[in-house]
What we know:
The structure holds 3 protein chains of 3 kinds. Chain A is built from 19 helices and 11 strands. By secondary structure, chain A is α/β, with parallel strands linked by helices. Chain A folds into 3 domains: about 5-115, no CATH class; about 120-270, Rossmann fold (3-Layer(aba) Sandwich), CATH 3.40.50; about 275-300 and about 325-425, Rossmann fold (3-Layer(aba) Sandwich). Chain B contains 16 helices and 19 strands. Chain C is α+β, with helices and mostly antiparallel strands. Chain C has 3 domains: about 5-100, Uridine Diphospho-n-acetylenolpyruvylglucosamine Reductase, domain 2; about 105-230, Uridine Diphospho-n-acetylenolpyruvylglucosamine Reductase, domain 3, CATH 3.30.465; about 250-475, FAD-linked oxidases, C-terminal domain (Vanillyl-alcohol Oxidase, Chain A, domain 3, 3-Layer(aba) Sandwich). Chain C is about 35% helix and about 20% strand. In chain C, α9 packs antiparallel against α12, α9 (about 265-280) runs antiparallel to α16 and α10 packs antiparallel against α11. At the B-C interface, β9, α6, α7, α11 and α15 of B face β9, α7, α8, β11 and α9 of C.
Amino acid sequence: MELQRLETLHDYMERCDRCGKCKYIPMERIVSWRFSAGCPAITRYNFHTYSGAGKQTAALALLEGRLDDMTDKLLEVVYHCAMCGSCDVSCKYTKDMELLEVLQQFRIACVENGYLLPAIMPVIDGLKKEDNMMQALKADRGRWAEGLDVKDITKEKAEVYFHAGCRCSFDNELWGVAKTSLNLLRKAGVDVGISGKEEACCGGHAYELGFEGELTKYAEHNLELLRPAGVKTVVTPCADCYYAFKVLYEKISKKLPVEVLHITEYLARLIEEGKLKPTKNVPLKVTYHDPCNLGRKGEPWIHWKGVITRKPTEPALHVPPKEFRRGTYGIYEPPRDILHSIPGLRLTEMERIKEYTWCCGAGGGIRDLAPEFATWIGLERIREAETTGAEAMVTACPWCKRNFIDAINQSESRLKVYHVVELLEQAI
Amino acid sequence: MATQKDALVEIVGSKNVTDDLETLGTYSKDMSFVPSVKPACVVMPKNVDEIQAIVKWANQTATPLVPVSSGAPHFRGDTVPSVGGAVIVNLSRMKKILWLSGRQGTAMFEPGVTFGELQQKVEQEGLRLNMPLLPRRSKSVVGSLLEREPVTMPKFHWEDGDPLGGTEVIWGSGDLFRTGALCIVGGTMQDAIESGSALNWPKGPFSTDYYKIVQGAQGTMGIVTFGSMRCERLPSVQEPFLVGSLDLGKLSEFTYWLLRRRLGEECLLLNNSNLAAILAKKWPEDYMRLKDALPSWVLFFGLNGYEYFPEERIAFQLEIMADIAKEVGVQPVKAINGIAAAELLKVLFQPSEEPYWKLRCKGACEDIFFLTTYEKISELVEVVYGAAGRYGYPAADMGVYLQPTVQGCSWHCEFNLFFDPNSSNEVDKVRQLFVNTSEALISKGAYFSRPYGLWADMVYRRDAETTAGLRKVKGIFDPKNVMNPGKLCF
Amino acid sequence: MALNRDAYRALEDIVGPENISDDVAVIDSYCRSWGEEYLVGTGFKWMPRFSAIALPGNTKEVQSITKTCNRLQIRFKAHSTGYSPLMCSLKEGCLCLDLRRMNRILEINEKGMYVVVEPYVIGAVLQAELMKRGLATGMIDPGAMTTALPIVPVHGVGNIENTYANTHRNQLALEWVLPTGEVLRTGSLGSGAGWFCSEGPGPSLRGIACGNVAIAGGIGVFTKAAIKVYHWPGPPVLPVEGVSPNYRLKPEQKWFGFWFFSVPSYEKAADAGNKIGQSEIAIVLQRSMAWRIAADSARSMEEAWNNLRTTYAQIEGKGKVGGWIVMIGADTEKEFKYKEKTLMQIIKDVDGELLPFLENDPDAKLRFLSRWTRTSTCDRETRRAGGGRISAFITFDSIDHQMNVARVSTELKREYIRAGRMVDDGGDQGMGNFGEHGRVGHVEQLAMAHYTAEGAETLADFGRRSMEMMLDPGYRIIGNFCEWGPHFVDGKLREGVGRRHVYNEHLWNRKIKKAFDPDNLSDATFYSPE
Lengths: 428, 490, 530
């Protein structure tokens, strides 16, 4: 197996000493037995291999030639992972390692070496043909915006580009998220446009599945889309898209030359500026779910090029010093600020929040590869939400919302699920 | 042909071997109800070499050995042979105090050293012993530690085996061994002392806590030739208190919180009968008067100050204690009906004056004791009181001693059945009460962790795996079963 | 060496197909921990392969597996969280029992002051549940993400043992599947009286279950344990704030204090430790040094290395020796004030100096408090650097003795640093905790080197020399040392250094092993090396 892309991570990989932190939320944040787990994969499947450390160690075994080749089981393990980054945050609390990056590069290496799981191929084939991750027709992409009379940036300029994302565009139960987001922006007087059926995938989801080329392709596509439109800001209601635009494009040196904001960032700003005034009462007790791609994974990418020194009398040091992304600067407060601004709304927090949130289960390709696992992850979160006494779970990502709705529909739960924008709209 | 006695004389000298009938008679029975079996002789070694030689000889000749370190009277049946032809190995000649260190809080001594002898020596080092309640004058400290007798300062009782440190032991196989910190690697005892070692850590060596095999063994695994123990510091200021109550539940609740909050050091509970027996000088007048004057239950506890700001230390503890007392509904005082806590402090933490306090009432005493948890104390006390009633033993005459152990994790519950040994009626009554109550207590969840005499069968028949495991251990350390055969499950 | 199919199917029938695997990649993910570079001796970094990994879910399954192993003569070894090279077998083909599914807290008995857990309950989780009830228990130094089972960790030492004891000492009754498949319940549990007592009846089989060092899977599998718990003076939920890695206690917390002070000499260090211990004021009484403070307060290795310049200058650079970390906790203001006043007086009495690095940064103290209480790990100063490390000179003894050890071990380490063979962490990483109010503890010397053949040899050499020095009266550190550190010399497993020196302990050890495991199926790599 060709693993050159893991060579640069070898130093980090061999630092793993199986401390086990990657399986849990950070120790200092544990307040109960019930909600102490951080990694959905090992919590569900129990073999150490499923943890971040386990996958990394297996990758190290391949890299160092201890393992001759990938095994079917290992491939299954690699892809039974939400790529949520919980392991990465917990590990980096005390270690200077790049656990999530190892898992990401390992997936890319799997794809490069032809280790492809049949279940994801229709999704990728659909992406290649129809520019979306939903196995839907490109021609249907803009239907959510029918009748909205909004600028089309392929035809006219706009200051702000609203990117709905594949989930919002094609999941008609979630059209409301896109519509509501757009309406709120327009109510605040924002000069906003969309690209309708010309909108294409951000490429982020495919990247997480190991298809690096697709990310590059869509990054370039979106750069081209924005260039003539005079756009200064890209805003999206989807955490996945946010992550792709804000973090991944920078990572592959295809940074968008515009400000990238999640809808909650923008709306919070508008509320602070007085351009949106939530005045109506929304008497609801809610709890907020931090999407992984907006929170711990959403902090800006930091490039580093240097060496790790190995002087015998010094520890291994990064030269120049490397700033690790540890989940500290994700988007945690803007969604909460919005919720706090809504009259009558009571926000109560779950035990696992912010950088140590429990994943919704939609990421990493799990919904396609292992739907029962995705449901299990979502249900775990639903149960946690219910312990707060909340009537509803609020999130800032349509993928999260979809996975929660699907999980609730397979359970006895009566919890409602909202996107932040939907509650804000009720208050305007 | 050399006799048994000849062989022993060869080892210890003629003055230290006895087979006269009167002496043998004193070892053939004790205050317990175990059957009487006369030993063949009594041997009194002086040092480890002699002990090792005796044990090796016992292996060669298949002679049972019964180690005894305390002087009479004995109460538990463990020093009475269970089989004929046994040799009593009396360790009371071994009276050396080997090392004391005030700085390390350690005393190291031979098995013949008694509490009285050791207490006065450690005090000179600024230390005090964490003692059982009023041990008899002839009680061996090593013996007490090996028996896991409960101690009266539960705060310093981190594990059941405390305050025992290390031991030197001759296993039943005749091999010399040292447990815990006394198992010094690479040097001598003196090297260790000069290295600053405290020599009182009980664990090890390596991956076995060998001391746990020796403790509680009733001499069935080997003979301890010396041991060390952890001592505590003498306080500079002492503030003892009493709490009297009819309500045992409240007292134990209060005690629970004292221990949980780590307040005070000395802590024990007695019923009026026992406290009266301890304090009475004239019998029976003092005893009756005290018994009437005292509430049913009395908790004694002591707050102490040491080197740094002793009064302030006591002050903050008093504050917390007062809050707890108010919450529970008890009133700690300095005296109850003329009986001062300060006076009790002097009495309760010394060896017993003669005659031994348990014998003052009627001349004999049989103890029922076990371990339990806080929640079960009242229930199990009622079991014993109920049984006393059924067997015609006046419950009001029974002594009760409740000692929290392991920092309050468990409680030693002891019922002292005083009786006239010359009255066959009383002897029978107490024997029946003892046997039947013990069975009843076991069935109600009382834990007889120290299964002496008749308890052994009651306990081990309920725990087959432990019995099997212990027999394996016995087979390792005493393969020929020369050490006190017939005891426990051996 | 894989299991044959019949054996695999037999085990699969017990745990279910989803709970057993002999996939080589799955197995290899288990074959790394730490320390293997000097422990394993068979080529560093990787441990020999297991034959399969099985995940039993309860005692019954463990028992069935054990009996099956006996029938089919399969060697096996159980581990809980696996954060130790002790979890490995040094012979290929051992069946690995990962006890991850056994992770329940079974009972918290507040009045009985004990809790009952399965092996995969970790310290942090248990502590969180206990704190809600005003209770706490010991947690080990490697961290709160390791098992809470008290006698599983190799030594049981932990940050908070001054009040909450070495975990080995907190072991109450135990449920234990013996290598032959019987279930032994120790102490009061076997007698049907509950979990509260580990001893007896009569002598204690608990003595076989653990000594100064753990048995590391050498005699069967522990499946449940009762743990002694203590009072917790803090709030039910620690008010931690911040975002990773910057957690700290909220500034308005009023229950805890945290200090580091250095001292002019090892003698004064011993005096200080003894006084603090005896005054019973501290939850944490930990010998520490410039590197620990530098590393623990840093968010990266580079920051730690930079911090070291400051902390070193404030300690070793001024000719002082690494001093003490002291943490106090109290229920009332009066209690806190007493404890703080006593500490300050002691520091004055020993000519100690509070560390400006901490005193000038209250935020750092709040971060330390949060970590010391909840994480209890020595990760940042030992494991973040990458590369190999060794803990040497481990003995359990008095503060006086351990200060001697600290002095001697530091001198040895500085030799290696001067020779350019080891990471120069200030030269003194003698760190350790004292428990039971200063009555006993240890100071191990931590040394770091890179993951190279030279680095591995350096660490192994350091370990060998530490062993020799501990056995040489000339160094005045003779005592009760715990066999840990290098088990290998020149690629061969040493026959337990010290065991042969002391009353043939290795032979007794083998007899115990033989009695309880006649077919030698419970892997005894670190229990009874052959």
